[in-house]
Design brief:
A two-stranded parallel ribbon has the order 1-2. With 235 residues, the protein is mainly α. Helices cover 50% and strands 2% of the residues. The protein has helices at residues 2-16, 35-46, 48-51, 65-77, 87-97, 100-112, 150-166, 177-183, 187-195, 197-200, 208-213, 227-233; strands spanning 31-32, 204-205. It has a domain at 24-62 and 120-131 and 145-233.
Length: 235
């Protein structure tokens, strides 16, 4: 295993033109200690294709949870117009009924689209504390992570994406105003958080006073907040 990892590391270092161990400077974890950090990080990840210039809208952002959530919400609201069954349709229906394997595959595929994603909204008053393991076979948890419905989160992402593509700080949508007011974040500050999240935070992300109060579990050491993040969140 050591030799296998060594070959992978050497090949990866050659492609990246960098020395060091395989995991060095490639992946890092940032602890999110408040709601503002969780929301900004989620938006930062979902808007990564738009920020990188690979897409212009959420609908075009491949391999993102935002696109899957949007597709799921659209599919659930579409109305199906009943059709008059024809002879060929009756034959096809009888064939599908006689093939339970194909029917189960189709149903399973439709159910699996986006179902591995955890819910967005969390009920802070009624949801129990701690983890909430999912009873289904598709995802790990049935507990949300934001105090807002999915529609409000997608609306906020859509507005932020428009600012990135057009380069203009347009009018803030009415659905997003209560979110900014509750979190006490100005729209301009929110835009900077989402576009520069990876550069603003290193080990811990959150409001300056919460980061200053936060301590490590073992050594109880304090965490450093970069000056750029401190100045931005103090506006």
């Amino acid at each position: 295993m050591r030799l296998l990892c060594q070959r992978i590391a050497q090949k990866s270092n050659k492609e990246d033109e960098t020395p060091g161990k395989f995991w060095q400077n490639r992946y890092r974890a940032v602890r999110l200690i408040d709601e503002e950090a969780i929301l900004a990080c989620a938006a930062y990840v979902d808007l990564n294709p738009i920020r990188a210039g690979m897409a212009q809208t959420i609908e075009d952002s491949q391999f993102t949870s935002a696109r899957l959530r949007l597709q799921t919400s659209v599919d659930s609201t579409e109305s199906v117009v009943p059709e008059v069954p024809t002879q060929s349709a009756s034959i096809q229906s009888s064939v599908e009924q006689s093939s339970p394997e194909s029917t189960q595959t189709t149903v399973g595929f439709k159910a699996a689209i986006g179902s591995f994603l955890g819910p967005v909204e969390i009920d802070e008053l009624n949801d129990p504390l701690g983890a909430r393991p999912s009873a289904s076979m598709y995802r790990c948890s049935d507990k949300g992570f934001l105090a807002m419905p999915t529609s409000a989160y997608l609306e906020l992402l859509d507005w932020t994406a428009r600012q990135m593509v057009n380069g203009k700080r347009g009018a803030t949508p009415e659905d997003a105003l209560p979110i900014f007011e509750r979190l006490k974040i100005k729209p301009a500050v929110w835009y900077e958080l989402v576009t520069r999240f990876g550069k603003l935070f290193s080990l811990v992300a959150g409001q300056p006073h919460r980061v200053d109060e936060f301590r490590g579990r073992l050594r109880k050491n304090r965490y450093h907040l970069r000056q750029a993040a401190r100045e931005l969140l103090s506006v």
